[in-house]
Structures are given as structure tokens and as C-alpha cells.
Design a protein that fits this description.
Blueprint (H helix, E strand, L loop, with lengths): L37 E6 L6 E6 L7 E2 L2 E4 L4 H17 L5 E8 L7 H11 L1 H6 L1 E2 L8 H10 L7 H4 L5 H12 L2 E2 L3 E2 H21 L7 E5 L3 H13 L2 E7 L2 E4 L6 H5 L18 E3 L11 E4 L18 E3 L8 H9 L3 E3 L1 H4 L2 H10 L7 H26 L3 H9 L13
Parallel strand pairs: 3-5, 3-6, 4-5, 9-10, 9-13, 13-14, 14-15
Antiparallel strand pairs: 1-2, 2-5, 7-8, 10-11, 11-12
Length: 417
């Protein structure tokens, strides 16, 4: 059984009248666009779908990052995401670079699996030796693993696993970790990223001196990442008042019954409205961004918060569960209003950090070992980000970038046990 740790149980019970914000709020400079190591573009001869692989950094001959599929995916988007992956690996001191794959195609189209198979086959030189990929928007882990197995590559971590002295034993160990059962009927590999996001939110409450039950949150997206974050926040006692999926937003002032709602999801992370409890109010999808809550968690799509809707945000902190959830311009506008954004390369990096801890043999298939390490790591990093924000007016992204710009050196060949 997984024990939900209340990180605020030893904090003072006095709730501050206002959440601290910096006395001097800087405007964020435009993001620097360093050139990626490599870009590849592929066109599917059967459907005309276009796919991209961008390797932003290659370290130790390896780069890591998921593969997404959505209609409208662009090379620029994949470049941004690859840059973010490079920041994640550096921030968490992982001995690899960052990359991303993206396919411009509707994942609900019945031809989508075939498109994914042909994309992976086209990228085979990279996925065989250099690119460690995994699930992302529109591509669940079980599906990409099935594709890799069909291609004779075993599992999507293949480029790392093949370096092991005994690849078969390493593959078995990785599969055991991914499929370890946790409370709620979930698998460890499916929820670890959302668990990290939840603790980014809980660490934020700790920084305010608030108990979880005195903190409210809204979550945009209840798929793999957003759903797991919602589950662990609910288990910790935080009041999740609003969630949204592609069909709209759901609201209950006293807090939603998150486990019950998650039971109503389909394979695309959408909740069956015909089975909703009577006391859940249905709202337009955009209402989640303007929810009157302490913390907003965009966990669905990139570029969800833009200059056009940033002034709708009423939360005091935005925790990016989705990659590149906030545009640089919108983040500058939020900062000018005293709203901090915990960047994706910290808040949602638990999934990639854990995957590499598993590959490197630093965690195993015992869930509590992984939960304990990720919880401790996330609370430490978020506390530092928010301290720099409230004490010195340095945005969390700027602080995080300083970590990412100074990665731990690789002093030896990466060894996969």
C-alpha cells in the first residue's frame, strides 16, 4: 500500500492572510533559442502525416524525450519540447541529453497506430542507439512499447537497455518497475509523473505555511499526468474544485470526488458526462483557467496559457504539468501581476527523472522507494524556486534555468546495470 505523506504536517497551522509575493516583480526576458543538435523531418507515404525528431542535446551518446501525436503538431513545438527535455535532464543531474518526437496526426484516427509504427521505423537508427523515448500526448506508454516490441526492439527505453551487460535482465527490471501496482488500481509507471506534480503543488502550500486542506487547485487535463496529479492531491487532502477535459470543465466548490471521476474516464482521458454525480456543475472548458483557486495546474496541451487568456488566471501559482504550458509572453504578464509559474522542466520532470533512476538501478519495483525519493527531491527544488521568487523577485524559470545551464559533468561512460 502506498502511504500518502502530508508534507505540511509539521508546519505552523496559522494561515497567512495573503500568499507572499515578491516586492519587486521583474518582466521575463524573451526566451533564448539555442540551436538544437539535430532536426529530422519525416513524411508518411500512406497518410501524408508529418513527423519530427529534434535532439537538443546529446550527452554520453544518449538523449531522452517522449513521442507525442496530435493534429497540428509543428517542428517549432517539438523544438521547444526538446529544449525543455534538455533542461529537465540537466536540472535533475541526469547523464543524458534532451530530445523530443512529434507527429502531426489525430491520435483518434484509426490509422494512428500504423503512422506511429512507420515513424518509429523511420527513426530506427536513433531509437536503436541514441534516443530513449516514452509516452507523451496522444501516445500512451503501452502503445509505444507495443510498437517497439513489434519492431524487435523490446521496449521504448531500448537505446539505453542495449548498453547493459545483460539487456534481458535490465529489460525485465524496467518492466517490473513500470508495471508495479500502486494504491488506486494504478501502475507505478503511469502515475509517477503526476505524483511529482502533486508534490510540486504540496511544496507550494508548504512554502505558504498552509495545510493541504486549506489550499484549492484547478487542473486542466485528467489524462495520465493530470489524472495522477489530481488523485494524489485529493489523497493528500487538497481541495480540487475544478478539472477540465476536451469536453469542458467540471466544478464543485467543496471539492470533487477525484477517484470517482477518474473511474469515468475513457482511453483518451475524457470523463463520461452521462454518469456524473448530480452535485457536479458543468462549465465551459476555458473556465478552468479562470477558476478562483490558489494553484492552477495546466496538464493538457502546450501553450495553454497565452497573452490572450493570461489575465483570466486568478490562481497565485501556476504549476506546469504539461510541457511548455505557458508561452514566454504570457509568463511575463503573469509575473508582472505577481503570479509565479513553476516551470515544466521542474514540476513535471518526475517522470523522466524516475525513468532514469530505474534504468540506472537507483530505484526498483517497490513503489515507496520511488515515491520517497521523488517527493524529497521535488520539495527541495520547489522550495528553492519559491524562496528566490518571494525573497529576491527572481522568477522560478530563471532560477531553474541557472540549474539547467550548469549540468553535472559526465566523467565516465553511462553504465546501465
Amino acid at each position: 500500500m502506498t502511504t500518502i505523506h502530508n508534507p505540511a504536517e509539521d508546519t505552523a497551522s496559522t494561515v497567512p492572510a495573503t500568499v507572499p509575493v515578491p516586492t519587486t516583480v521583474p518582466v521575463i526576458a524573451a526566451a533564448r533559442r539555442a540551436e538544437p543538435y539535430m532536426r529530422l523531418q519525416w513524411t508518411d507515404s500512406d497518410t501524408g502525416a508529418v513527423g519530427y525528431l529534434v535532439v537538443h542535446t546529446l550527452r554520453g551518446g544518449l538523449a531522452t524525450g517522449g513521442t507525442r501525436m496530435r493534429a497540428g503538431c509543428t517542428l517549432s513545438e517539438v523544438e521547444d519540447l526538446a529544449r525543455g527535455m534538455a533542461a529537465k535532464t540537466a536540472t535533475f543531474d541526469l547523464p543524458i541529453g534532451g530530445a523530443k518526437g512529434g507527429i502531426d496526426f489525430d491520435p483518434k484516427d484509426p490509422r494512428a497506430v500504423g503512422v506511429l509504427e512507420r515513424f518509429c521505423e523511420a527513426m530506427r537508427p536513433w531509437i536503436d542507439a541514441h534516443w530513449v523515448t516514452a509516452e507523451d500526448l496522444g501516445v500512451p506508454q503501452h502503445l509505444i512499447d507495443e510498437v517497439f516490441e513489434k519492431l524487435g526492439l523490446g521496449q521504448s527505453y531500448h537505446a539505453a537497455i542495449r548498453r547493459a551487460a545483460d539487456p534481458a535482465a535490465t529489460l525485465e527490471r524496467v518492466r517490473d518497475g513500470l508495471s508495479a501496482a500502486v494504491e488506486g488500481g494504478f501502475l507505478l509507471g503511469d502515475v509517477i509523473g503526476g505524483y511529482g506534480v502533486a508534490h510540486a503543488c504540496l511544496a507550494t502550500a508548504v512554502s505558504w505555511g498552509r495545510m493541504p486542506a486549506e489550499t484549492t487547485v484547478a487542473i486542466q487535463g485528467v489524462g495520465t499526468m493530470g489524472g495522477a496529479a489530481a488523485y494524489y492531491l485529493h489523497e493528500a487532502g487538497m481541495r480540487v474544485t475544478t478539472v477540465a477535459d476536451a469536453a469542458g470543465a467540471l466544478y464543485r466548490n467543496g471539492g470533487l470526488d477525484i477517484p470517482a471521476l477518474l473511474e469515468l474516464r475513457d482511453e483518451y482521458g475524457e470523463i463520461d458526462r452521462s454518469r456524473l454525480p448530480a452535485d457536479v456543475e458543468q462549465l465551459p472548458r476555458a473556465a478552468v483557467l479562470s477558476a478562483d483557486v490558489d494553484i492552477l495546474v495546466p496538464a493538457a496541451i502546450s501553450y495553454a496559457i497565452t497573452p490572450d487568456n493570461s489575465f483570466d488566471v486568478r490562481a497565485r501559482v501556476v504549476v506546469e504539468a504539461a510541457n511548455a504550458a505557458t508561452t514566454p509572453e504570457a509568463e511575463a504578464m503573469l509575473a508582472a501581476r505577481g503570479v509565479a509559474v513553476l516551470p515544466d522542466f521542474v514540476a513535471n520532470a518526475g517522470a523522466v527523472a524516475w525513468a532514469w533512476w530505474l534504468l540506472l538501478g537507483e530505484v526498483d519495483d517497490i513503489p515507496d522507494t520511488s515515491f520517497d525519493r521523488l517527493r524529497t527531491t521535488m520539495h527541495t527544488k520547489v522550495a528553492r524556486l519559491l524562496s528566490a521568487w518571494t525573497d529576491h523577485g527572481i522568477t522560478p524559470r530563471d532560477t531553474g534555468r541557472r540549474w539547467a545551464d550548469d549540468p553535472a559533468p559526465i566523467t565516465a561512460t553511462v553504465v546501465i546495470p
